[in-house]
């Protein structure tokens, strides 16, 4: 089996994960594994996608947002 190391998690995140693990009667490692498996296997249904599109239309209408990638790159290169 493969192993994954996650570095630089802040203390609040680890505390929240420990709390979730306790609520589910699992170890921290088992809780993180369950979260990762769920996330990796998640596929939004057509209903979920349609619902999210409707919410976006309600919030923003037809407004289009520019791609922020060039601005982020420029900021990171400073």
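Sequence proposed for the structure above (78 residues):
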């Amino acid at each position: 089996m493969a192993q994954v190391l996650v570095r630089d998690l802040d203390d609040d995140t680890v505390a929240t994960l420990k709390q979730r693990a306790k609520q589910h009667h699992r170890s921290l490692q088992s809780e993180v594994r369950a979260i990762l498996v769920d996330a990796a296997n998640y596929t939004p249904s057509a209903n979920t996608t349609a619902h999210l599109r409707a919410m976006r239309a309600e919030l923003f209408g037809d407004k289009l947002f520019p791609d922020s990638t060039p601005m982020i790159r420029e900021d990171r290169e400073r």
